[in-house]
């Protein structure tokens, strides 16, 4: 009888630990789905900032877009979302997705990222979206 009691008690303790760990994971990564939906909009804002403008109205509009993009990036940072450093870094298959490879040029090391097509992002220690990159081979 006591053996059954100890087993049941151990099972309850294990279940409690497992549930606590699951709750911690949920809290740690809450908002992940929302962040994934926001990232394409941030990409579009950054693409808009790459356009060259010459008239005053366009310059002012671009400045407004820059302020919005900066605000979104700051909000993401406040929620532990970081951009994955890529350009010039060694290719890491856990953080980068190679979409193209090019021959190594003078002064480059093999497996070095030479171009970024799309920025990648991490939420704490979890990759939300890998960076899409070109790798020198």
UniProtKB/TrEMBL annotation:
**CDD domains given for it?**
GrpE (cd00446)
For this UniProt record, the keywords arranged alphabetically read as follows:
Chaperone, Coiled coil, Cytoplasm, Stress response
Q: Where in the cell is it found?
A: Cytoplasm
Chaperone as a keyword of this entry, yes or no, is yes
PROSITE patterns per UniProt: GRPE
State the oligomer form and interacting partners. Homodimer.
- HAMAP family, A to Z: GrpE
**What's the protein called, per UniProt?**
Protein GrpE
Q: Which organism is it from?
A: Ligilactobacillus equi DPC 6820
Taxonomic lineage: Bacteria, Bacillati, Bacillota, Bacilli, Lactobacillales
């Amino acid at each position: 009888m006591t053996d059954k009691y100890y087993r049941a008690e151990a099972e309850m303790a294990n279940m409690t630990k497992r549930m606590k760990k699951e709750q911690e994971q949920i809290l740690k990564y809450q908002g992940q789905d929302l962040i994934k939906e926001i990232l394409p909009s941030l990409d579009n804002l950054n693409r808009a900032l790459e356009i060259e403008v010459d008239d005053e109205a366009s310059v002012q509009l671009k400045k407004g877009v820059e302020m919005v993009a900066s605000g979104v990036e700051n909000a993401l940072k406040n929620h532990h979302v970081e951009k994955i450093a890529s350009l010039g870094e060694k290719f890491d298959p856990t953080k980068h997705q190679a979409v193209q490879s090019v021959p190594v040029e003078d002064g480059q090391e093999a497996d070095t990222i030479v171009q970024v097509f799309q920025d990648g992002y991490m939420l704490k220690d979890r990759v939300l979206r890998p960076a899409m990159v070109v790798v020198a081979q």
